[in-house]
Design a protein that fits this description.
The chain has about 325 residues and is of the alpha+beta class. The chain contains 11 helices and 12 strands. α10 packs across α11.
Length: about 325
């Protein structure tokens, strides 16, 4: 009887522990993606789709087909981001970028799954296959990990893996891990290098010059109900930081002046944006209901039209 009671108690303890599994307290780059990030990456941005299921953001932007990188991934592979993708990580270099995609796709023995998408070509590069069309493609590096971007950038990603001593940008990956658990993030240790290609003339010239002095920067957001965003950026000195603060506040003020009186929703969004400068740092916060932010985004001329919504997926993924 004692033995049986002990077994029952042990079983109950195991079930209790499983039900009380702790949620992660920090952000992180997926362990399958992190080793594949090119060493010269200057900035990272991530989106945790697996944590966004049943949120307004997921319904409007993922199911609504409003994220171009995921749309391109589906067009070239036939895989559905709604059901097949858990996480997306963008890696930025000056004038170049690729997006790593983690999901439940992949063939046997580490081979990429079979695809039959009309118009997509297949090329071999150093033992890897790239599905491509019009200069852009998708490369499957491991089971459950793909990278999308320009074909030349995909080839460069393979080349870097072959270089002796090649290693991912550990400091940048560690910077992601220093953030609280979140749905979306962006980090850089040298933002000026990413902004090197911005035009220095015209109306955006002043913004480009300030961006070129950006050092370390972090941005993260909780998208459970709305947009709860926190950001911090470092600049060479207090004078530049104040200039950035004043520029952002000025832009918000101009937008307020240009807002029609029949669009009070826009005014509420601008009221939710706060930027402050202290010494050489600039802090940014924004907190607004998702419905309000979505209305504003839909009003922008660059907003993409949503496509038909496929069924929801509840496929689990490892934490």
């Amino acid at each position: 009887m004692r033995c049986r009671s002990a077994v029952l108690l042990l079983s109950a303890a195991i079930l209790f522990a499983a039900g009380c599994r702790r949620e992660p307290t920090n952000a992180r780059v997926d362990a399958a993606i992190a080793p594949l990030i090119p060493a010269d990456t200057a900035a990272l941005a991530g989106l945790r789709l697996d944590r966004l299921k049943n949120t307004p953001f997921f319904h409007q932007y993922v199911e609504g087909r409003r994220i171009s990188a995921l749309n391109d991934f589906k067009a070239k592979t036939g895989l559905d981001p709604v059901q097949d993708v858990w996480e997306a990580v963008w890696a930025f270099r000056p004038a170049h970028s690729v997006v790593f995609i983690r999901g439940k796709f992949g063939g046997e023995f580490g081979l990429e799954p079979r695809f039959n998408v009309p118009g997509i070509q297949r090329m071999s590069y150093k033992g890897y296959y790239i599905l491509h069309q019009e200069g852009r493609g998708v490369l499957f590096l491991n089971t459950g990990v793909a990278v999308a971007g320009a074909v030349s950038d995909l080839q460069a990603a393979v080349d870097q893996r072959d270089q002796p001593g090649a290693a991912p940008p550990a400091a940048l990956i560690d910077l992601v891990a220093s953030l609280p658990a979140c749905h979306a993030y962006a980090v850089t240790l040298n933002g000026g290098s990413v902004a090197a290609g911005l035009p220095r003339e015209g109306q955006m010239g002043n913004f480009a010059r300030m961006a070129s002095t950006l050092g370390k920067a972090t941005l993260y957001a909780d998208l459970t109900e709305g947009i709860n965003l926190q950001g911090e950026a470092s600049y060479p000195d207090a004078a530049v930081a104040r200039q950035v603060q004043d520029t952002v506040r000025g832009l918000v003020g101009i937008l307020r002046l240009r807002t029609p009186q029949d669009r009070p929703d826009l005014l509420r969004l601008y009221d939710a944006i706060h930027v402050t400068a202290q010494e050489g740092r600039v802090s940014l916060t924004a907190n607004a209901p998702f419905e309000l932010v979505d209305q504003v985004v839909r009003a922008l001329p660059t907003s993409s039209r949503p496509e038909s919504r496929p069924p929801d997926s509840s496929s689990p993924r490892p934490r």
